[in-house]
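pasting for ref. prot 1 ->
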Amino acid sequence: MDVSREIFWNVGQGARYLTYGFMVVTFIVLGYGLYKRYKMWMIGKPSSFNFRNRLSDRISYFIKNGIFHRTILRESYPGLMHILLFWGFFLLAIGTAIVAFQDDILRPIFGINILKGDFYLSFSFIMDLAGILAVLGTLIAIYRRYIQKPQRLDNKMDDLLSLVWILIVLVSGFLVEGTRIAATSPEFEIWSFVGWNVAKIFKNMDKGSLGSLHAFFWYSHMLLSFGIIAYIAYSKLLHIITSSVNMMIRGVEDSPKGAIAPIPDFETAEEFGVNKIEAFNRNQIFDLDACTRCGRCQDLCPAYASEKPLSPKKFIQDLKMEWERVAKGGKNEDGLIENVISEETIWSCTACLACQVNCPISIPTFDKNIELRRYLTLTLSKTTSETRLLFKNLQQKYDPYGMGKRQRTEWTENLNVKNVQEQEVEYLYWVGCVASLDDRNRKVAKAFVNILNNAGVSFGILGQDEMCCGDPARRCGNEDLYLGIAQSNVELLKELGVKKILTTCPHCYNALKNEYPQVGGHFEVYHQSEFILKLIKEGKISVSNTLDGVVTYHDPCYLGRVNRIYEAPRAIIQKISKGNLVEMERHHDRSFCCGGGGGRIWMEEHHKRINHLRIEDAKKTNATILVTGCPYCLIMMEDAVKDKELSDRMRVLDLSELVSSSIG
């Protein structure tokens, strides 16, 4: 028996030309929809982004995350749903292409004639398996959305229509196969295991009725399939394209993740920031369209969890609705602020980047939020009372507290600390405002100095000439103030010949390492965790594992998520704590913010306190010591311990304090 099948069995030569005709119409409709969407994307300002830059990295990232779903599978249940749908349809698409190339019209052109023998049997099995995978994925999606109804999902009619349409396409395909097998009855079609069993439904029908039913299913399946392909550009299914592209654009960015983009033409711009949707650049507009409304960003947002008026998902979707309205001809006279996004929403963000890092397609939210903050601060001169005081202190005293230069060096009394302006050293210890001026964090500065002295490191500080790194000003939207501070710091560091910098603050670390290059400052920057581990490995300091009790570690956002330093702090803790390190439920990329970033440490909280939510995570570990590596986190966590009356059972320590007390 010839192990193969006729491609257009039972439907005749006319069906062949009808199929190709519908295919052409389908791709014209799809192409027109994509072109209209493209014109809508183009209302934004031009972007300097070059897709060809790091192209191999972009392709690699897409293969790992777009095809093999690494980021999507961070959550197993929705990840399983999506991978079943993706791989089911991916294999079906390949199979459909093989069938098309095998047809009498295309076979002479491409010379492909493989649908026979053992290959056909394997092909039949894989296609049925792919169909079952896709059906299962669709059913899981329907169950999840309309039975389980997770809070983060908003189920629009378009979602239901798409899922039901997909399910009907898949089921109709199996009905086509089943009626064909029932009518022809070749034994080898048992390899088409789904169609073989569907055929049993029709086993008592006569050949004529089977032929008519098969033709009905065949034409229905063909029309439904082409219809849903054409529908892609006009529905949420567009994310098949936009999400894939966005992964390659945003997953591999040219600038460090922790660096805010500078304002173009800052010296000549008439206004700063964004208050109209078309003032965003085209990459940012494309972000809005790529969003699939999955809500993972919302689940991990500290502002949303503490009942502030910010959901990253809603933030993006509100901007998307405004973009669609304006791109389709709507007027935009009143601006975004207070009409689309409220001021309170704008100031609620902690800039922790949990939304972007945990988004399966890497959509950033803070890059849009900061543009709104810039507009409020620089164009409207409208900001909060707390940030006004912050800016005044930075302008007049060069620190967020307004304490002035003289108090910056009080913590160095009776310590062996050199000044880099007086002696040549290998490393500059950038102390930072908080470690210089906050009583609790001065202990951290002393501990770090003790470590460096014990290791024989050649280091010094700027002393009273050190200013704020500018991070609080920049993340509160005051780019002008930030640039003045950053440029002054870079000039001083260059004048002193500084090449290598150590810091205990992740926010200073991020500014010096990732943002100062924008103003000509290129330095070799180490966070204390990296440098201390280096000293331990080189045998320059010896630590003892004498720490009793359970230890848990809080990942600072700008050390972990933003700069990918996760394992160095943990490796140090393991060497000291007798292996009693217990992870909180939310850690690494999914770590929960302390609430101090994005300028929030200088503002009042008017809803649930974020640090209170985080300390509950620590409490669940039964830890007696909570370790962190950030001055903001240290303040916020200690405040939470006191507020929750946990001081008798939990201490909060900085990494340097832990190491300094264990040096033998």
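and prot 2 ->
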Amino acid sequence: MSDNWIVANLENAFATWNDKMTEIWELVTMSPQDFKGGAIWHIVTNINGGLQAIGYGLLILFFAMSIFRSTASFRDFQRPEYALKHFIRFVAAKVAITYALDLMTVIYSICGGVVSSIAGSLGGMGSAAVTLPAAIETAVEDAGFWASIPLWLVTILGSLFITVMSFIMIMTVYGRFFRLYMYTALAPVPLSTFAGEGTSQMGKSFIKSYVGVCLEGAVIILSCLIFSAFASTSAPTLDTGITTVTMIWKYIGEVIFNMLVLVGLIKGADRIVKEMLGV
């Protein structure tokens, strides 16, 4: 870390960005069972088990509603195919509620395989790390006292913007993780809607939405890949022929633009997945 306050301020902002990028990598490639030592997953498991009783009650309700809505007369029950269709629907919904936690875990594992395959091609966040060029550090240290005054303002604004973007980005990824927990905890209730022919669409929407949340991890990893390639081919150019203030202002502006590309992609991950799945 440099002794110069201006250089140290920029290095701290870049360090925050790089730390959040590493944290994103860890979160996306981590299973919900391992997050925070499994403490949150234990709570989710207990809630899921507690809601099974409610799911069974709703199962009976939706099943009865489906029969009364689709039955013109009691003679329909004398048709084997009619009774068999409702029986299969009832059993399938019962199994889905009983093994709701396992069902959600399997879906996440399948989507996690997609994420792992994409993550394997990236290898890590080292290529997406942002560092301060030596030319910037030298120019700042050579600047006089009066010339450094506008540099303070430029670096403060730039560092603040970079730090805010870092936290927006990591909060979006944390939000995805917490949505996974919410879907898993409440799963028995929406899965009970499969018992009714008229309500099964709610269960299908729930499954599609959960798959979408799981696949957001793949979009986030792809966003990091795009950012890494974009940043490497669009590295900010340093023009040493201009004043130090202008050079640093131009450099910070280009760095922030590159970062905005990644933040925008991560923030729009849910919308991209919804458009792909038609949710």
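The chain has one domain: 5-277.
The CA atoms of residues 44 and 182 lie 8 Å apart.
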